[in-house]
Amino acid sequence: xKYYKYLLLIGVLVLVRCRSNVASVYDFPKPVDTHSQxxxxxxxxxxxxxxxxxxxRFDGARLNNFFQVDDxxxxxxxxxxxxxxNPSPWYSFKIWSDNPRQLDLILxxxxxxxxxxxxxxxxxxxxxxxDSTKIEMLSENKVKxxxxxxxxxxWVSAQELVNSERVRTWCLDVSRHAAVHFDVVGxxxxxxxxxxxxxxxxxxxxxxxxxILSRQHPPEVTGYFAMQAFIDEILKDNPxxxxxxxxxxxxxxxxxxxxxxxxGHWRHNAGGIDLNRDWAYYRQPxxxxxxxxxxKKLHKxxxxxxxxxxxxxxxxxxxxxxxxxxxxxxDFKDFWIYSVKESIQDSILERASEPLTPVSKSWxxxxxxxxxxxxxxxxxxxxxxxxxxxxxxxxxxxxxxxYKD
Length: 405
Description:
Layout: H1 2-19, E1 46-49, E2 52-55, E3 65-68, E4 73-77, E5 92-97, E6 101-108, E7 119-121, E8 127-129, E9 135-139, E10 142-149, E11 154-157, H2 164-174, E12 180-187, E13 193-199, E14 208-214, H3 221-234, H4 239-247, E15 249-253, H5 258-262, H6 285-301, E16 304-314, E17 318-322, H7 332-344, E18 350-353, H8 360-368, E19 371-378, H9 383-403
Parallel strand pairs: 4-6, 14-15, 14-16, 16-19, 17-18
Antiparallel strand pairs: 1-2, 2-5, 3-4, 5-11, 6-10, 7-8, 7-11, 9-10, 12-13, 13-15, 17-19
Helix pairs in contact: 3-9, 4-9, 7-9
């Protein structure tokens, strides 16, 4: 009998250990169905009309059709991966002409309003925003842009192109820092790598942990830029950053949706789902991988998440926060937002709500009783200001956490 009791005890311990390595599921008051939905894959090809060519054969491209309207005018169609969908009409393509010429190019989004002012590049790396005087609104869902073409390729994109390969390059560059460890923690639905950066110095055990997420939504490049500046500040060689890395650990998941990014999606992953609605049952492999990786690592190191920041983009800069306070960081967000506002001498928008829907900020609160913040940057926010804000928010966070006791 003692033998069977011993086996039962071992079985219970194994079950508890296994369960402690996976994220808990939640029934949020406002649930969202995140079972996979079908998507429409764009036809990757070289288009040619008259002496003008357009190309979407690269990761991050979005171009669904290209044709000539008249002698001076051409049109590109930009359609989403599936519907219903948030109106974030991402586009990115290459265009050139056999002969130097000027032309008008219509961007047609069908039933969705124009959102992103075009960015132009001659090499796909260095970008500049298009002159607004060369852009004409034809209707809510059609815009005409005036281009000067030549035989050399011109890249046209809704934002700067930052596909999975460029995120990987950034991760490798950042991981040269002695305090950074770069890992692949799993695979997306289409088998792409899901990256993690671990930042910290000294022992890993029992360190308070900050979680950073980015690119759940493919077009949200400005939020990604803020995340990069945020991380850069944490890695600087100065008294505050050095002390912070000794006392705290930061887990960064910089590319939550590699499939959606490389497929040029407007919003969803390859399963046709908004990943920032999948933090209840983790039906998509990307959210499941990251959620379980966080929980497993914390259990192994006997650590605790105190803060989660999820970087996004929207029409303007704003922080979305939770109304409930946490025991570990009472009033943190209020002091943090105030200190950032004082430092950059600019207004800071915040909108607080109850954790009712399965988004990441709600999950941070429910899973860890941690502060959860959706860190939004405007689509058109200037790049120098994004850098300043990313650095400032990181610096003020570190100072508050270091001196909170």
